[in-house]
Design brief:
The chain is α/β, with parallel strands linked by helices and 312 residues long. Helix content is 22%, strand content 25%. It is built from eight helices and 15 strands. Strands 8-7-9-10-11-12-13-14 form an eight-stranded mixed sheet, with helices on one face. Helix 7 packs across helix 8 (275-291). Bound molecules: zinc ion (2 copies).
Length: 312
């Protein structure tokens, strides 16, 4: 499994000299796996990073896109109306995203692509886009098979097959969901590549609670790679951003230690943060680990950068 990071900025896309290393695109990631059908690309979120991602998919000749949405704040949707594939009727796009209060991915895209916000109405492009609502985040899961494609996991299927014996999911990428602590229904995705045993978790737009809930511990446990929201420094968080729905390096480091995570990539960088400010948050996470008896893992903490490729 491999992750290409196309967007790491939270809040708003930004461009200025001080962010040349980490970049200014908002959230979009691509998950590469041998479990995906040939010609299918798996993306998470449609922040402005989805525009360069779509350019890469065009060059590759991708024939189908599966897009998982964490939630619908602007920094996670802004690129969708301008991604070339949104207008390419030859490439089906399957979108899976949370639905709350009757608002799912379809309603969001209809609103984004309508006058006076956008010149092309969603109805013009909707023919090749299929939206699937996640109504039960935490229970809903997807199963992706290299020949059979993407389907919803049947209720109880993942638990039933977790034990010994023949495993019908052994060729699959299993994608589990968990609700984050954020405003509105926001999804963290856990990717389990069964043939290799590799696990990656994206936990963005999340603010840690004081106590680690058992279901979050289960969701993150034993991940080889955790990509987690660490928008704020410790001082910012204490002074004014607690309750904003975003995390710190300390929060992320705690999950790494308590959930036995292999490597930690920090993301959702603040639009005000220049490269050294992001490095400082990495430093805080490493310090937390050293102060809490996990110094050996300090080198496993980094901050994600736009266009970075991470082997899981
Ligand atoms: Zn965000
Ligand atoms: Zn958000």
């Amino acid at each position: 499994m491999r992750i290409t990071v196309y967007g790491t900025r939270g809040g708003t896309p930004i461009a200025r000299p001080g962010i040349r290393h980490y970049g200014g695109n908002t959230t979009c990631l691509r998950v590469h796996s041998t479990c995906l059908p040939v010609g299918t690309a798996l993306l998470v979120d449609a922040g402005t990073g989805i525009v360069p991602a779509s350019f890469d998919l065009l060059a590759e000749g991708i024939r189908r896109i599966v897009l998982l949405m964490t939630h619908y704040h602007h920094d996670h949707t802004l690129g969708f109306p301008l991604a070339p594939h949104t207008f390419d009727q030859a490439v089906p796009i399957d979108v899976h995203g949370p639905r709350e209060h009757g608002i799912g991915p379809r309603q969001v895209f209809q609103a984004l692509m309508s006058a006076p916000f956008f010149p092309v109405d969603y109805a013009v492009v909707a023919g090749h886009i299929t939206c699937h609502d996640l109504d039960a985040v935490g229970t809903d899961a997807l199963v992706i098979h290299p020949r059979d494609g993407v389907r919803r996991a049947d209720p109880g299927e993942l638990e039933r097959r977790a034990g010994a014996g023949p495993d019908a999911l052994q060729e699959c990428l299993v994608v589990r969901t968990h609700r984050t602590v954020h405003s509105g229904c926001t999804v963290s995705y856990r990717f389990e590549e069964r043939p290799t045993g590799k696990v990656a978790v994206l936990l963005t737009d999340h603010e840690d609670a004081e106590a680690l809930p058992p279901d979050l511990r289960r969701h993150v446990s034993d991940a080889d790679l955790l990509i987690q929201d660490a928008q704020y420094t410790r001082a910012q968080y204490r002074a004014r951003t607690a309750g904003f729905g975003h995390g710190t390096g300390d929060h992320a480091a705690r999950l790494l230690k308590e959930c036995d995570v292999g490597r930690l990539g920090l993301t959702h960088h603040d639009p005000m943060a220049n490269d050294p400010d992001v490095d400082a948050i990495v430093g805080e996470a490493r310090t937390w680990l050293a102060d809490n008896g996990a110094a050996a893992r300090g080198g496993a903490v980094f901050a994600c950068a736009d266009y970075q490729v991470i082997e899981v």
